[in-house]
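2024-03-11 09:14:02 INFO receiving multi-entity request
2024-03-11 09:14:02 INFO entity count = three
2024-03-11 09:14:03 INFO echoing inputs for audit
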Amino acid sequence: MVGATATAAPTRTDEPVLATVTFTVNGQRRELELDTRTSLLDAAREHLHLTGSKKGCDHGQCGACTMIVDGRRINACLTLAIMHQGAEITTIEGLGQPDHLHPMQAAFVKHDGYQCGYCTPGQICSGVAVLEEIKAGIPSHVTADLEATPQVTEAEIRERMSGNICRCGAYSNIVEAMTEVAGARA
Amino acid sequence: MKSFTYERPGSPAEAAAAVARTPEAKFIAGGTNLLDLMKLQIETPRHLVDVNGLGLDTVEPTEEGGLRIGALVRNTDLAAHPRVRTDYGVLARALLAGASGQLRNKATTAGNLLQRTRCPYFYDTAQACNKRQPGSGCSALDGVSRQLAVIGGSEACIATHPGDMAVAMRVLDATVETIDAAGAARTIPIAEFHRLPGDEPSRDTNLEPGELITAVMLPKPVAGTHIYRKVRDRASYAYALVSVAAILGKDGSGHVAFGGVAHKPWRVEAAETDLPKGAKAVTEQVFAGAKPTHENAYKLKLAERTLGAALNQARA
Amino acid sequence: MKFDTQAGPNPIDRLKVVGHATDRIDGKYKTTGTAPYAYERHDVAPDAAYGYVLGSSIAKGRVRSIDTASARQAPGVIAIVTTLDTPRVERGVMNVAYLFGGDVIQHYHQAVAVVVAETFEQARAASFLVKVDYAPEAGVFDLAAAAKDAEPVPADSGEGSGGSGEERVGDFEAAFAQAPVTLDASYRTADESHAMMEPHATVAAWDGEKVTLWTSNQMIGWGHGSLAKMLNLPKDKVRLDAPYVGGGFGGKLFVRADAVLAALAAKAAGRPVKVALTRPLIANNTTHRPATIQRVRIGATQDGTITAIAHESTSGNLPDGDPETAVNQTKFLYAGKNRLTAMKLARLDLPEGNAMRAPGEAPGLAVLEVAMDEMAEKLGLDPVEFRIRNDTQVVPTKPDLRFSQRDLVGCLKLGVERFGWAKRNPKPGQVRDGQWLVGLGMAAAFRDNMVMKSGARVRLDASGTVTVETDMTDIGTGSYTIIAQTAAEMMGVPLNRVVVRLGDSDFPVSSGSGGQFGANSSTAGVYAACVKLRESIAQKLGFNATDAVFEDGEVRAGNRAIPLAQAAAEGELVAEDTIEFGDFSKTQQVSTFGAHFVEVAVDVYTAEVRVRRMLAVCAAGRILNPKSARSQVIGGMVMGTGAALMEELAVDTKRGFFANHDLAGYEVPVHADIQHQEVIFLDETDPMSSPMKAKGVGELGISGIAAAVANAIYNATGIRVRDYPITLDKLIDRMPDAA
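2024-03-11 09:21:47 INFO inference complete, emitting structure
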């Protein structure tokens, strides 16, 4: 066994198994002792009180919990906190604050890319990561030519953002916000 | 979710040994399906062996001109790999048609092969399901079955394999490499990797307990137009009603496998010689003996027409 | 303030702040994740324990016993409250099913226990150790089968447009029999789930005999009274607070199990408890839009004049439940001398049917407006022209009742022009674009404009800051912003001098959010309170209130101008008032209108339907904030597109539950389903609606859109599907040869 996260011998009881994990959240080093069952999402919301990441389904079906971990967006509800020893984690709180909005946050406000606000942090984290994914040349389902470099188009944005459900139906506005941030013409 | 202990082994062999020696142990990689099921206590491991960090995350050329895909290569990375994009388009397309960007960033090659059915009765622990609870019965047979299998099912189970990647791997004749607790490696042709439910639907695959997938091997590329056509109710982020993985020449000749129709990726090689004759000639053979429910009989017509679309694309 | 006469000129008409496409004032909180939702209140309940709800695994019957012994022994468990420990809890406003208590199971996933533990993980694990023994009973779960035994609905039953049951004008049967052109068609709409992104959630904390619930609820006033009744407490011993609500769409109009269980569990645990319904529980534990079976008959003369129109609808519900009032818009939308509308209600043992965004109109127009399309084709008329020919300026069932404003024709004509309707090929199945069959469709939109009594309190402090307090909620509707705009306009200050506090039952009771009445009603309440505050400010500064102009942070009259803040120099000024709508509001019919235009493409091989373009033209009175109002409309269009193409709670008619009870099984539209959407608002003010001269738009967008999509599919393929959602399996057998 390696690493600080290794736990004691297997147990047959229902007692919680505790493990320690250390990672960086929004630039701050955090150490937590957690029940091994704790999702990364619940570690943030219930232990670090970073409640910006939302729990909409807890089953990877909505995207409201999206965080950027080691440069990639993931569903924080479907991963264990203890699996992220040493990780660099960015949540919505790490992108910007009410008086210092990240450009993507500002664009969402400008284009009304939200209504009730509950899916919004996930949309924004996803939106920031999507533009990076396109820049990195990662193809998508709608990329016509797999061997060409994908471009920032509305179709690409819509497909890549489809893991973030907005029941208020702000999709059209979200695409406009992202397009503006990407600096591309609609 | 039951409490569990957790360890991070140092090597694949150590990982396999850890699962073999520990009661109720499971490997965890991306975790996107396992944790989903653990929250509902459909899966109840008491020990998790975290295989992330064991390497197994590279895509390498093989001497035969194919590719060796590490078990832990993430779906995103596999789809974006230059060789996969160039030579195995059907695989890249299948991966990109699956799940969402977030899930593809976590989900692994091995984990994707092992994802479990999305049958609503499998997911509802109050309902009878032979896959989840052997002997309890199958509520789907006379229940909501629009998404479920039309062929290869049994009186015990009509679940489908929900994935896209495996359907592409089936048409590519991939093989799965594993290692067991004793450190012994073996390879399993993809055709024999997933099982039909028969009277033992709780077993999705022919893996032995504790056997760890280390890689998926692709033979050298097959020329032709690589197509993965996934049909679903919404435009993205949904499971296939029917999918077609095909590698086709201009004359329509080639290979085809179907997803969303059975407990495993569905391919009948003998029917492929008739591909130039058109979709119907093929699907009549591929789906001979199909036993759809009244809710999912549409899949037969849909499979034919989806293959028709693929043939049309190849001929264009 | 009583609204008892048509609104005259008032300070809102200046439109210095109101009517502007202002960014939402809550935007910087929502986009940074700092807006607190119910489950996130570490600030007020830092020591909250975690409650996990267990749902019934049978659809109907009784609970014989519940064994909690091993669950109570589980690590971390603090308390378990079971339905057998609890006398049946009274129902709150609009509840049909009982939420908790007693041994009767009325529907699947009805709450039977809540397990409270130190951590979420412990509560969840322990909940699986609770063993419930049920005595199941046979139930009725299939609407189609139950429809033949459905009972006629008595008049004045149900929600929606103030619905009634059977209503007749003239002699429908005779006129229909004589009509040279007729349509008689039956349709089906599906059970739908609100599927708001924030699950129903509550944190409850007791302080002695008083309980506070931080909860997710659209109607604080209703919830406050309901919870007092349900918990057997005087109202002053209950407080609700819901500053942010992560979507509702009608699913949070009323108290649900999360609130009741949090309160009971917190009492049992002796400390605050938080409870969120897990996603797999929501579809069956809470409410849904009921499925309908509808029949429409239309008779017309050859020139397209409707002479007979009948619309009948059958839906199902639990005992005491209401019908889906799908026939109501048919009383208002088109002329025709001989008319019949009727509803029947079947008794079902499925979960509770209740209001979902535009109850009545959403499924009703989804059918009526397809029938109109079918009829137009029979008549050889353009569907827009057919609607224009049957426009009416009076309510067809009450010819003495005029619409206060009705520019449906204006909406249709502008839509025709902006959408390029002339390019539509009236013959279906003709337009091909590569693998796609392309079609255009349209539908009229109608939603009645309800108003609700609404109160607010307004404060002016020495810094010149205006603070509005009302129990109004912002469920994504833009309430924070339009209320701030209203107060800024009334008090003559910039938007950034206004603070808005919402959702607290300690604040004056508002309309709440529902039925698209919230924006108009709640801002009218703020208007009323501001009128009072202006009076006390004027008095304080020695002005005559009627002469004083509130502008640029000053109060002016004649050649005197005094800074507003000075009025509060010696102490805060506070005013409170409530707008009340009496019978005057019923002297004309106040409704909202619109027209939807849609282009779809249908894959010629697979019959997959993709919406390519959408346009809505809306006539809905004064638009208080075109930016947030537009978002409301496009949001409704998205939800209606879901209803048209994919949304259906799949009923297991044998076991009695919705089988696809999560967000993977119940598909709602995703980004890739929705292309750019256009919305045009006609420039209107309606002085019959309120001093704001505004009307609702929150439900207009969903009204009619499903039919526009369905009609476009027909135009693309020539296949008429009368069974929503229009999934590809309903098209595939009839698709043309692809090659």
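2024-03-11 09:21:48 INFO post-check: Chain C is about 25% helix and 25% strand.
2024-03-11 09:21:48 INFO post-check: Chain C touches chain A through 69 residues (CB under 8 Å).
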